[in-house]
Amino acid sequence: MTEQTARPPRAPRSARTPHAPHPGPALQPLGRLRHDWPRSFADRLTAPLPGVRAMARLAREGAVRPGPEGLRDIPRLPFAPGPLPEAGPDTLAVTWAGHASWVLRIGGLTVLTDPVWSRRIFGTPARLTPVGVRWEDLPPVDAVVISHNHFDHLDAPTLKRLPRRTPVFVPAGLGRWFTRRRFSRVTELDWWEAAELGGVRFDFVPAHHWSKRTLLDTCRSLWGGWVLTDRAGRRIYFAGDTGYGHWFTEIGHRHPAIDLALLPIGAYDPRWWLRDVHTDPEEAVRAFQDLGARRMAPMHWATFVLSSEPVLEPLTRVLTAWEKAGLPRENLWDLAVGASRALDTDQEPPACRPR
């Protein structure tokens, strides 16, 4: 694949208005399912999907897993599980369960993002680190958000553990997958659409990615990220799975003063194959700046082997890129798997320091 998205100029930070009223569209009703989605969302792709030549090159090079040297640091991957923070209606806190799975506490709700509690997912070796939060230690789950249907983000065995009345927010075209499994409170949203639950607004926003789960469903459902906003206007942006491109500036424009951006930093090598769909650490820092966000928490690394970069490299590179950009160190929440951080507390969690 070749990168097709131009990198727009970054908006000056002085232009941001803290917690400006949300300029988005009217809210969609909870439980909204549609049966008139387009058959394909391929027209939303930022870059063309790989063709026969790219697939042949990947097979020829075989560079989809780290070599022995790249796997040597598995014992040093940061894993520091702890108790979930106390959370009330005014709490904004996050706990990293691993990969793209977060336990968000916002507006009195407990929200899971792309929950994957399985030890193994289709097509990959077993987890490098255990899940950071035991399932039995979770509080009642008030909602789930799904970014797209790839197996490392949509895990059927994990979702099977949830009560079927759990509210689930999903991309356009993915609702039927949940209703077939008897989930009864499924809300499908297109890009730039939103719904509200318990005073928390759920906005579905674009990403530079794609969708596929079987041989016959390429781009049949949409992909994207989520901006969650509480009653006080505090915002968490969960990017899901994404490459770098122009959408970050637009998301920051429509959702100013994001308090915390959860951004992917791993699964990026070989670059010629993955640059259109996965940010590398330097691009993740650039995306953070494009968003105009206040804080960043890295994700999508230290959990599954999906690509060929050394397992510890995403952390070392994002720390270097952050320092090179001159950003305040305290605004990079480099959490260990299982660690938590609350916006309104001075307690510092274990950071992602190699063991």
- The largest sheet has its strands arranged as 6-5-4-3-2-1-13
**Share in helix:** 10-25%
Radius of gyration: 19 Å
Number of strands: 13
How much is the average pLDDT? 91
Oligomeric state of shown chains: single chain
First-last Cα distance: 35 Å
Q: Outline the low-pLDDT stretches.
A: 1-22, 345-349
Count of runs of 4 or more consecutive helical residues: 8
Per the principal axes of the C-alpha atoms, what is the gross shape? globular
- Following the backbone from N to C, one meets helices and strands in this order, namely HHEEEEHEHEEEEEHEHHEHE
- Main structural class: alpha/beta
Profile the largest sheet: 7 strands, mixed
Strand content: 15-25%
Detailed description of the structure:
The protein is an alpha/beta fold. It contains 8 helices and 13 strands. It has a 7-stranded mixed β-sheet with strand order 6-5-4-3-2-1-13. It is globular, with a radius of gyration of 19 Å.
Compact description:
By secondary structure, the chain is of the alpha/beta class. It has helices at 52-61, 68-71, 156-159, 175-179, 247-254, 271-274, 281-291, 313-324, and strands at 92-98, 101-106, 109-113, 143-145, 168-171, 186-189, 194-197, 200-205, 225-229, 235-238, 260-264, 296-299, 340-342.
